[in-house]
Amino acid sequence: MRLLLIAAVSALALGLLAACQPTLNWRDVRLDNTPLKAQLPCKPDRASRAVAMAGQNLQLHVAGCDAGGATFAVMQADLPQPQLAAAVLAQWRQATLLNMRATSLQDAAFVPTGAYNLPQSLLTQAVGRRPAAAGGAAVQARAVWFSNGAQVFHAVLYADAIEPAVADTFFASLVLQ
Prior knowledge:
Mean pLDDT: 88
C-alpha cells in the first residue's frame, strides 16, 4: 500500500512539473559569424542553403523552431558588396509576402540596435495562406528585414493568431552587437 501511495504521489509530482514547463522557453541565440543576437522560445534547428536574390547567389543561414503553435525563424546572408543591401532586402520582403499570398499589409520602420537605417528596414504585419502542401490554411505573419552593411537579416513569426506579447519579445530581442 505504501509503495502504491509513493508511486501515485510521484506520478502526480511529475505531472505537476510537466504542467509547469513553459510553452515558450526563451533563450539567446546567435547566428554564426554575425553580430546578431536574438531570442527564440525553443531550441532552434539550423540550416543553410543557396538562394538567388538581387542577381546574386547567396548562402542563406537559418535558425528556427516551432513553439506554442507558432513558427519563429531568424535568417542571414552575406553580400559581396554592402551597396546591394537595399535591393536584397526589398526582394527578400517581396518573396516572403508572395510565398504566403499576403494581404492586409501594415508596414513600419524597423531599425534594431546596430542596424543601418535603410528605407527597406521594415516590420511588416500580414495575413496570408500557408502553402497548399501544409493545408493552405490562413496564417498571420510578422516579419522584419534589416542590414548592417554587407550582412542582411530577416526574422519572421508565423501563427494562426499572433500574440502581441510574444511578437514583442521576439522582435525586441533582435540586436546587432
